[in-house]
Amino acid sequence: MCTAAINGWSLVFTLPTGQTITSGWSATYSPTSGQVTARNVAYNASIPPNASIGIGFQATHGGNTAKPSSFTLNGMACATA
Predict the structure, then answer these.
(1) pTM (2 decimals)?
(2) Fewer CB in 10 Å around end: N or C, the chain?
């Protein structure tokens, strides 16, 4: 967890081949396939210290249901569970 507030964020991840985002919530997503950047929306731009927010999306796939292997938040690598 982060011990400092975050004001404005972007989460970058790469969707596996064949996956395309069709809709999402609590972030803007661009582009909809390949290396995607999810950016804050007005109501969740600030994340207090030791807090979290939830975002999500729905996607189509051509048989590949793998998860993205890595994420970066504002350029810093994130641990995945």
Answers:
(1) 0.89
(2) C
Query: DSSP letters along 19-78, please?
Result: -EEEEEESSEEESSSSEEEEE--GGGSEE-TT-----EEEEE-SS--PPPS-EEETTEE-
Q: Say whether pLDDT at 22 is over 80.
A: yes
The answer to whether residues 14 and 36 touch, using CB atoms and an 8 Å cutoff, is yes
Does the domain spanning 6-64 belong to CATH 2.30.42.10?
no
User: Which tens digits make up the pLDDT trace of 48-73?
Assistant: 998 999 999 999 998 889 999 899 99
CA proximity to 56, closest of 6, 5, 22:
22
Where do we find the tokens 């641990």?
79
- CA-closest candidate to residue 55, choices 18, 75, 65, 68: 68
